């Protein structure tokens, strides 16, 4: 689902994940994928996956806006039924766009991925390319599990997987995103836990240099009583100095206008 084709509240985005059996937009490294949320219970060896209904490029275009998802579906209930409330749960989120056919495309090129590794650093272009390929493969594996292709973005796909399934978290995915990154990507479920979100991209395209930008933090918490969950993205706040500058500028302009009116 491309949320930007629907109503978008200023400063916030909300989505209810109903678990329709659609597909995850993916399959081509030269097109943007949807963001995919992956949840894992290593104790019971089960996992859950959900496309978040927003395409990689659209997330970047709204990266300063808070976003929120309410998760409730048959597949999610199946995951919770295989999970005890005291068992540790882990999740990661990723999307990609490998198209660099024009200068404008640089604004969306690269990988969006979670990490709580304080040592996360720049990577070279081949490494980004590898991650883009692995993220597409992850979506393809999830789509294959349902026997569908990766073109329908009008509904939200979600899936419950056991260890034997193609979509299982540790099967060609895991913390390392199929061994495509040297930095951990998973965070813990629960109130008060946060998971950082980064954009690994081109910093200076003309020189072929890569960069990384911290976009904000995710939080994910399950209500076992109602068998629902909430996933939230909090963007990096605008620095106070910027707000102060903006406020001062507005005041200056207002004062100038009053002076003109009184002249």
Describe the structure.
The protein has 263 residues and is of the alpha+beta class. The protein has one domain. The protein contains four helices and eleven strands, in the order E-E-E-H-E-H-E-E-H-E-E-E-E-E-H. Strands 1, 2, 3, 4, 5, 6, 7, 8, 9, 10 and 11 form an eleven-stranded mixed beta sheet that branches.
How do the helices and strands line up, and which of them pair or pack?
Blueprint: E1 12-17, E2 34-41, E3 46-55, H1 56-61, E4 66-71, H2 74-81, E5 90-97, E6 110-115, H3 125-146, E7 158-162, E8 187-188, E9 195-204, E10 209-223, E11 228-235, H4 240-262
Tally of DSSP β-strands? 11
Q: What is the alpha-carbon Rg in Å?
A: 20 Å
Query: Termini separation (Å)?
Result: 55 Å
Q: Helix fraction? A: 10-25%
Low-confidence stretches: 1-13, 15-23, 240-263
Secondary-structure class:
alpha+beta
| Biggest sheet details | 11 strands, mixed
Mean pLDDT score: 80
Strand content: 25-35%
Oligomer: single chain
Tally of separate domains: 1
Give a brief rundown of this model.
With 263 residues, this protein is of the alpha+beta class. The protein is built from four helices and eleven strands.
What key attributes describe this structure?
globular, eleven-stranded mixed beta sheet, disordered C terminus, 32% strand, 4 helices, 11 strands, 22% helix, 263 residues, alpha+beta
């Amino acid at each position: 689902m491309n949320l930007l084709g629907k109503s978008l509240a200023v400063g916030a985005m909300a989505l209810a994940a109903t678990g329709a059996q659609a597909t995850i937009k993916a399959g081509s490294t030269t097109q943007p994928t949807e963001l995919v949320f992956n949840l894992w219970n290593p104790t019971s060896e089960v996992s859950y996956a959900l496309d978040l209904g927003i395409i990689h490029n659209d997330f970047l275009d709204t990266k300063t806006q808070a976003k929120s998802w309410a998760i409730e579906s048959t597949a999610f209930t199946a995951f919770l039924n295989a999970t005890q409330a005291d068992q540790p749960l882990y999740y990661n989120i990723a999307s990609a766009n490998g198209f660099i056919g024009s200068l404008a495309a640089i604004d969306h090129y690269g990988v969006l991925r979670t990490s709580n590794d304080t040592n996360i650093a720049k990577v070279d272009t081949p490494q980004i390319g590898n991650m883009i390929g692995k993220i597409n493969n992850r979506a393809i594996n999830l789509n294959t599990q349902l026997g569908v292709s990766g073109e329908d973005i009008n509904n939200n796909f979600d899936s419950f997987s056991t260890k034997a399934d193609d979509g299982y978290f540790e099967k060609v995915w895991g913390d390392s995103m199929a061994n495509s990154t040297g930095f951990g990507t998973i965070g813990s479920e629960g109130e008060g836990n946060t998971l950082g979100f980064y954009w690994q991209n081109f910093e200076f395209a003309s020189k072929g240099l890569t960069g990384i930008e911290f976009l904000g933090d995710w939080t994910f918490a399950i209500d076992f009583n109602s068998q629902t969950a909430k996933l939230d993205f909090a963007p990096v706040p605008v620095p106070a100095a910027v707000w102060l500058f903006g406020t001062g500028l507005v005041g200056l302009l207002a004062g100038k206008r009053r002076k003109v009116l009184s002249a």
